[in-house]
């Protein structure tokens, strides 16, 4: 059984006591830091957490064969968790980025057959092997940025054959790569060209033909929809998310991304685990989310890349919404794998403090994909997913912005990046 001791961390960020439910309000700023911290790992699990002196004393007679990592001058965090990505797709859309810089809007491009439709065509044409190959490149990038778990949505098929191919590719890459991949079905990501003008019929197809197959083959844990003006209405979204629940799929929702559309309210009403984006969420919607404990997944890279006003992260935290951070990694609105840069942006554009950004990208992100009991904090019994940062204290992670401070990544107790 592999054994590993990390010692002398300048700051060991444990986030102790957060496994049961996501952190809210002031709790989000309390990182439970151990100075000169140490972690002892055995068989992929965290066995002990304490100061270096305490752990060296505890294990003094059994350090033979233990791999030791010296984290002097560094910060140790729980492995970062990305709870919202569109990991599996083919191709890229830098041409649209260029069009947007020349004045076109995201929705104009999509309504003219580009955007999600462009990636859908490329993804339909790709083989499962090609999707695996392209997704593994992205997973490597995530890992190099200290990310040890990602959620991955389907939604670039918009027909069963391709949705199935994407979901299988997501499972395949999760098995091939150190990063754990958690799947979400997002058959209702856009109205496909074949159903243009008839979104209701497409929603019926997703409900009747796709959901049962997703459930039968256990291809996903979550069910997501793009609830947006010109895409799917709140009524269509409610219908799909309620239908998914009957198949054991937990609702998630792309809510109030481009225009206010009562997506946050709907998330609270259907009991979604998270509502994501929320750039234009209403005050009432934010209150309802806080009331029902719906996690607000902030995607600061999307606002940044679409060059629009960011979601009101500060207000959400102050209102009691448990907040998480994610890349939204996708070829149109956020082609990045850098969770640390998202944390920088959350501080600079959404009003989070550096401690809240860490909570949002670790334990709250884990809760947003129903993994709060297994990952997201450094506590005895949890999976040994850790990242060591080459900074003296956690604030420097945000202060020296736009850089990758990842020094070492440990996944399931194994050093996978150093
Ligand atoms: O989360 N809004 C919908 N879906 C993605 C963008 C997908 C794309 O442009 O390819 C998002 O922003
Ligand atoms: Fe998204």
TrEMBL record:
4-imidazolone-5-propanoate binds at residues 93, 156, 189, 257, 333. Its EC number is 3.5.2.7. It is an enzyme of class 3 (hydrolase). Pfam families: Amidohydro_1. Fe(3+) binds at residues 84, 86, 254, 328. Keywords: Cytoplasm, Histidine metabolism, Hydrolase, Iron, Metal-binding, Zinc. Its cofactor is Zn(2+); Fe(3+). Zn(2+) binds at residues 84, 86, 254, 328. InterPro entries: Amidohydro-rel, HutI, Metal-dep_hydrolase_composite, Metal_Hydrolase. Residues 75-416 form the Amidohydrolase-related domain. This is Imidazolonepropionase. It comes from Robertmurraya mangrovi.
């Amino acid at each position: 059984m592999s054994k590993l001791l990390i010692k002398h961390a300048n700051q060991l960020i444990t986030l102790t006591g957060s496994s049961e439910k996501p952190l809210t309000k002031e709790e989000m700023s309390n990182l439970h830091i151990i100075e000169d911290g140490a972690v002892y790992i055995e068989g992929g699990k965290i066995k002990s957490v304490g100061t270096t002196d305490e752990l060296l004393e505890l294990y003094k007679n059994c350090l033979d064969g233990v791999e030791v990592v010296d984290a002097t001058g560094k910060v140790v965090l729980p492995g970062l968790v990305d709870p919202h990505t569109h990991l599996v797709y083919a191709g890229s859309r830098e041409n649209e980025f260029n069009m947007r810089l020349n004045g076109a809007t995201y929705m104009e491009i999509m309504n003219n057959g580009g955007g999600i439709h462009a990636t859908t065509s490329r993804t339909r044409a790709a083989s499962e092997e090609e999707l695996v190959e392209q997704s593994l490149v992205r997973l490597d990038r995530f890992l190099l940025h200290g990310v040890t778990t990602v959620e991955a949505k389907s939604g670039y098929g918009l027909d069963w054959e391709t949705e199935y191919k994407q979901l299988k590719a997501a499972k395949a890459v999760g098995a091939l790569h150190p990063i754990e991949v958690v799947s979400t079905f997002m058959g209702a990501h856009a109205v496909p060209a074949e159903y243009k003008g008839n979104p209701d019929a497409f929603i019926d197809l997703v409900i009747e033909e796709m959901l049962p197959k997703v459930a039968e083959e256990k291809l996903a844990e979550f069910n997501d929809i793009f609830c947006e003006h010109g895409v799917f209405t709140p009524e269509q979204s409610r219908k799909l998310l309620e239908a998914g629940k009957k198949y054991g799929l937990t609702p998630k929702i792309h809510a109030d991304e481009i225009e206010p559309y009562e997506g946050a309210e709907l998330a609270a009403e259907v009991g979604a685990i998270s509502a994501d984006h929320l750039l234009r969420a209403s005050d009432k919607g934010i209150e309802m989310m806080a009331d029902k404990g719906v996690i607000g997944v902030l995607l600061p890279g999307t606002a940044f890349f679409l060059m629009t006003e960011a979601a009101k992260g500060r207000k959400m935290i102050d209102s009691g919404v448990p907040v998480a951070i994610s890349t939204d990694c996708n070829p149109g609105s956020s082609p990045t794998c850098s969770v640390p840069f998202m944390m920088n942006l959350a501080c600079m554009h959404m009003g989070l403090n550096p401690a809240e950004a860490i909570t949002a990208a670790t334990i709250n992100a884990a809760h947003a994909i129903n993994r709060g009991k297994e990952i997201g904090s450094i506590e005895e019994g949890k999976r040994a997913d850790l990242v060591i940062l080459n900074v003296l204290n956690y604030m420097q992670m945000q202060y020296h912005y736009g850089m990758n401070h990842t020094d070492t990544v440990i996944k399931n107790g194994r050093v996978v990046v150093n």
